[in-house]
Amino acid sequence: MVYRLPEPLPWAALATPLAVAEDALARLDERLATSPIRHGWAARTAFADACASLALQGDLVLLEDLVLHDAGRDRHAPSQDLTRAHAVLRTRRRIATADPGWATTPAGLAALSEDPGGPGDQEDVPPPAAPPADAADGEGDFEDVDGAFAAELAGIDALIARSSRLLADTGAVREKSPLVYDPAWGETDRLAAWRHAVADTRILPPVLAATVAYDAWTALEPLQHRAWLGPLLAADLLRARAKARHHLPALASALRRVPRDRWLSREKSSRWLAFLGAVTAGAEQGMRDHDRWMLAREVLQAKVKGRRGSSSLPRLIDLVLARPLVSTTTIADELGVTPRAAQTLVADLGLRELTGRGRYRAWGVL
To answer: Where are the domains of the chain?
Structure first.
């Protein structure tokens, strides 16, 4: 249960990739510092990073399903993988809104290490209402039947969630199930070893310190079934070291841009180099996304120029820039308009339909 830094550190191999990664991350953070779409960029990136976190573990969660699940508008009963992806998304939001460095403190780790099935990680999402028959989403004659069935399933899920919380309040499910968790795992010792490894990085440059933190988390596996927490802790370490003051880096998305065999190498230095390369690729992609969405914002704003002050189109622009995709029901809920009016607003902006379906369609800005 020990993670040791190599002696001496391979500075000759690390120096150039480290400098490039530090520079790319700093340029992205500086661009976001004064960006009018910084919050929208962060919101969109959070969804993609949550899906990437599950992909790193070999599970596939569609971005569209996660967005709809987060809005309480599931098209079908949520799968276990989708629920886990939403837990990653909520954890990322929690870390992003906390003080920099909170996640790696003993209090932060204790809060983030709660049992996903326990009271600290229960989802309290109201059951989605059945979409109206005139939602103008292109649904057929069976929409009211599908909506009623979805509402029934959501009601059952809500009942199960309330029952679980009630049992948790009585102390009936406070212990982790031995059928799921290994009682001899030794989480306390593993967490202590990881925190010791992080403490050894205080004299290292920020990006290299985050590299060690992530690699140690992967090697030690402190928390069972929470390997996805490693990239988030490393990202928060970058915030604590003032390398990412204006955003929480999407390190899971970045790691997906590196061949899997590189960051799973048995050689520690090879894994470090892969992580540094991922940070560079992720930061550069973040800048490209930012510039593309800024251009899309300018194009959309040009379309609403001269509209009356009470128009909902400017708010719709903000909404589509803060979500990877939106449905008419989402637009109706967020803007306080009818589904028919939401469909009209989508047509006025000329948004791109992303699903290619005739039912349960969604629009957005790529």
So the answer is: 32-256, 304-364
For the stretch 2-25, pLDDT in tens is 898 988 999 999 999 999 999 999
Query: What is the per-residue pLDDT across 134-179, written as a single tens digit (0 to 9) for each?
Result: 344 444 333 333 455 555 556 556 655 555 554 444 443 345 666 5
Residue 80's nearest CA partner among 95, 65, 90, 64 is 65
* Interatomic CA distance for residues 306 and 335, integer angstroms: 20
Contacts by 343-349 with C-beta closer than 8 Å and gap 24+? 343/136, 343/137, 345/312, 345/313, 345/316, 346/316, 348/303, 348/313, 349/300, 349/303, 349/304, 349/313, 349/316, 349/317, 349/320
- How far, in Å, are 24, 161, 171, 314 from residue 222 at the CA level? 30, 27, 25, 46
Encoded tokens for 28: 């992205």
Q: Tokens representing 305?
A: 């120029």
Query: Domain 304-364, what fold?
Result: Arc Repressor Mutant, subunit A (1.10.10)
- The residue with greater pLDDT, 238 or 142, is 238
Token pair of 291 as six digits: 């510039």
**Residue 238 and residue 249 in contact, taking contact as beta carbons nearer than 8 Å:** yes
For residue 98, give both structure tokens: 């906390």
Classify 276 as helix, strand or coil: helix
Number of Cβ within 10 Å of residue 253's Cβ equals 24
**Alpha-carbon gap, residue 106 to 170, rounded angstroms:** 26
With contact defined as beta carbons under 8 Å apart, do 56 and 88 qualify? no
Which residues does residue 326 pair with via DSSP β-bridges, in sequence order? 363
Residue reference for tokens 């976001």: 32
Task: Note the pTM of the prediction, 2 decimals.
Answer: 0.80
352 phi/psi in degrees, rounded to 5 = -85, 130
SS3 146: helix
| CA pair distance 153, 175, nearest whole angstrom | 28
Residue-wise burial string across 231-249, b where 16 or more C-beta atoms lie within 10 A, e elsewhere: bbbbbbbbbbbebbebbbb
H-assigned helices in the chain = 11-33, 38-56, 63-70, 80-97, 106-112, 143-169, 187-199, 206-220, 229-240, 251-255, 260-263, 268-303, 313-322, 328-335, 339-349
The residue with tokens 């903000």 is: 318
